[in-house]
Amino acid sequence: MLYVAVVLSGAVAWFISTIAAGGAATLLIPIIGFLLGAQYVAPIISLASLCSNPARAWFFRHHVNWQVIAFLLPGSLLGAFLGAWSFSFMKPDWIQIVIALFLISYFIQYKFGISTLKIRVRQYWFFPLGMLIAFLSGLIGATGPILNPFMLNYGLKKETLVGTKSINSLAMQIIKLGTYAAFGVLTFEVIGYGILLGIGAILGVYYARHHLFHIDHEQFRLYTITMMFIAGVLMLAKHV
Q1: How many domains, the chain?
Q2: How far apart, in whole angstroms, are the C-alpha atoms of residue 91 and residue 94?
Q3: pLDDT, tens digit, for every residue of 79-107?
Q4: Which of 44, 172, 213, 214 is a good FRET partner for 161, with 20 to 30 A between their CA atoms?
Q5: 3-class SS of residue 114
Q6: What whole-number distance in Å separates Cα of residue 40 and Cα of residue 21?
Q7: Nearest of 82, 87, 80 to residue 139 by alpha carbon
């Protein structure tokens, strides 16, 4: 039953994550923590992401914005290494609280019609953004929704946003997993559960893509921002 629960968790989380451009890891943090233990969260979710992102990147390969990738990916690779390395000796719970408040505040601003990120995001911003967000991802295991407001403000929509994030995440997870392995975090048990979660993730991505193609940009934006709020609440709830 534990194995079935892990696969189903991956399917549901990545279905939601695909139509909302992120949030699978945040949804899974309390679930994986409850089922397997908090120490397994970051490496198992990273391995599952490595399984799911090739599928998501393939399904949305014609929509990738390679100009954004050119700036985002180098920063993400550097940040992923530093974050995964730091994971071996740091337990920065306070970072999750800051991220949670950011995600919730963005939802509140959107809900009440307050303009967010008035300064237009420039292409070169994605290098430092990628480095910071990948660092935090390697450290706490879940930061995907943080990048969404910047990508939305830059002008990426629906399939383009999902496809671009998938390419970046795929490369980032490879670096994170290699670093986890080098520092002894990636055990055979972690690999087994990560693959099970990844199988569920691939199923979730497959079924979600059909829904994504049939919604408009405003629906997608609402899904995305709602997912940011849910992710923020879940992260904050861990520390209350």
Answers
A1: 1
A2: 9
A3: 888 887 876 666 656 666 766 776 777 66
A4: 44
A5: coil
A6: 24
A7: 87
Q: pTM of the entire structure?
A: 0.70
Distance from C-alpha of 180 to C-alpha of 207, rounded to nearest angstrom: 31
Q: To which residue do tokens 């390395």 refer?
A: 85
| 112 contact partners, CB below 8 Å, separation of at least 6 | none
CB atoms within 10 A of CB 15: 21
- The rounded mean pLDDT for the chain is 79
The CA–CA distances, whole Å, from 215 to 41, 157, 158, 223 equal 32, 11, 9, 10
- Taking the C-alpha atoms of residue 99 and residue 165, their distance in angstroms, rounded to an integer, is 19
Whose structure tokens read 């420039």?
122
Residue range(s) defining the domain that contains residue 150: 2-237
